[in-house]
Amino acid sequence: MTSVPVSAQEQPLVRSKLKSKHSILGLIILLLFLFPLTQLITANNLNYYLHLMLFIFMYIAMASSWNILGGYAGYISLGHNVFFAVGGYFSSYLLLRDGYSPFFTAPIAGFVAMALAFLVGFITLRVRGPAFIISTIALVLVFRIRLDNWERLGGANGLKLPLIDLPVEQIKFPFYYGMLILAIITVYTSYRIRHSKFGLGLRAISQNETKAEASGIPTSFYKIFAFAISGYFVGVAGAMWGYYLTYITPSIFLLILVGAQMVLMCILGGRGTVAGPVIGAIIMIGTNEFFLSEFGSSELNIFGTGAILAAVLLFFPEGIVGSLRKIGRLPAILDWD
Amino acid sequence: MALLEVHGLRKAFGGLQAVNGCTFNVEQGSITALIGPNGAGKTTVLNLISGILKPDKGRIVFDGHHIQRRPPHQITHRGMNRTFQISLNLEDMTVLENMAVLSPVGGMRGLFRPDISKAERERALELLAFVGIAHLAHEVTRNLSYGQKKLLDFASLLMADPKLILLDEPAGGVNPALLEKIIDRVRQLNDQGITFLIVEHNMEMVMSTCNQVVVMAYGTVIAEGTPQSIQNNQTVLEAYLGKVAS
Ligand SMILES: Nc1ncnc2c1ncn2[C@@H]1O[C@H](COP(=O)(O)OP(=O)(O)OP(=O)(O)O)[C@@H](O)[C@H]1O
Ligand SMILES: [Mg+2]
Predict the structure, then answer these.
(1) A192–B112: do the CB atoms touch at under 8 Å?
(2) Contacts of A215 in chain B (CB under 8 A)
(3) Which of A3, A197, A210 sits opposite B113 (nearest CB)?
(4) Is CATH 3.40.50.300 what the domain over B1-79+162-246 is classified as, yes or no?
(5) What confidence tens digit (pLDDT) does each residue in A117-157 have?
(6) Residue A153 DSSP label
(7) Which residues lie below 8 Å from residue B161, measured CB to CB, with a gap of 6+?
(8) Residue ranges of domains in chain B
(9) Is residue A206 a contact partner of residue A72, using CB atoms and an 8 Å limit?
């Protein structure tokens, strides 16, 4: 009973903190929206930065999407790049055949990826732990072999796509905004799930599946549904990414490394936290870019990124957000859980 | 009237016939004990009833519904809830979250409502207070003591307003004061109309709390009746003593 007056006192404080947090996040998002426009006013060429940022946005979306299954429910998928590929091929094919812009077909590509995730999840989510991980790797290999030999989709050489028809100083704009909006929607979805009954159930599943089931949670349904949602955003990202690159090949999407990237970002930032994948994506792409510019595209840049990852995990075993929260040092601006 | 009917239940693990034609009833409003030597198959029977395991043969009727082929979550939704012999908790989640998980979601539409509503929070705190651990509500469950986890297990069941509660050794490893508390809470809830099926080795608890006793040995029911009649039953004594002697 003594807890009532205390929480009543805390309430206004919490609310004002929340308000300032929201306004800071809102401001950041606003600046991100305005940033490309400065290129139109000033003579600076920002295309390199736009490229880097839209790449980060894309991975924020993909890692956050992965986190819905891999973080909340605890099912590690190394095969999420299959949804990336499916989204890319679906929209590219429609662009070449009927001339539909991938920006319009991307949401549909997401649903195609989602349908595939439903199907795959129905089969593979019966097993857990290492068996599940291996089944997702197998999925990548199956799709790689299939696409390499699918002549209609260009086989191993892939497909060449038409360039988007815009002047060079604006050519990255649609992709920048597309990826930014995708990242915002994905993180928001992840946030909503984290604070819903569905998210609570997924977290229960990650802790103890028998207990979750006995508590009344339809665990199979939850897992498959989570898998499907987490496939969706990766599919949408794939659709835009193919168009951006102006060509697609199986090897762009279906390297084990691409799937592993999402996992590593989540682990680095904090698996199962809302902000973790965001932080993880920024740091990982940021450091990789730094080493690339310092040492060029050599083994050194991979080594450097790996060393940073190892060092961070040594000090933040539960990822940056996860570990900071545990010791009560997480800045309020990153506390979205 | 029987709330739960178990009929001809069988379950084998490989060559081991853990449950071998088990039949008994749990009467509406009763506190029924399920006792028997170690390895008699009691926990397996609870796992079969709650749907965690599927029977090889046999029938389980709960509240008028055949549930032997139903998944556990559906059985839970019908109004049966259980604890596990070794406390199963969601260790990295808070006590409050552990409580909230048991609260019915309400189908697809409830899926995206807030994880813990105000009403659920209040109900959870009330139930935690009922077993005396309300002060731990925001603690991570991992940090609770053995006994506190047992109390949490017990309190969390009530979030779902069950008709039947299955307890697997609630007194196991629990100090006398805590046991007293658990017994008292079971009685109170029983007065409110909740039926109990309790697996227990502590005879003091069985004799003082339960009004019906089912005795198992080697996977079958060897005796059934009131605590008094069981105490004087020759077969039961032999089953227990035989176990001790070997
Ligand atoms: N999952 C399992 N796999 C294989 N054998 C099992 C399994 N579960 C139980 N058994 C076996 O079935 C028999 C009955 O076990 P059960 O746990 O039901 O006994 P119990 O009556 O609950 O015993 P206790 O009082 O010691 O808890 C035992 O011989 C046990 O070894
Ligand atoms: Mg047992």
Answers:
(1) yes
(2) 73, 76, 101-102, 156, 160
(3) A197
(4) yes
(5) 999 999 999 898 899 999 999 999 999 999 999 999 999 99
(6) G
(7) B79
(8) 1-79+162-246, 86-161
(9) yes
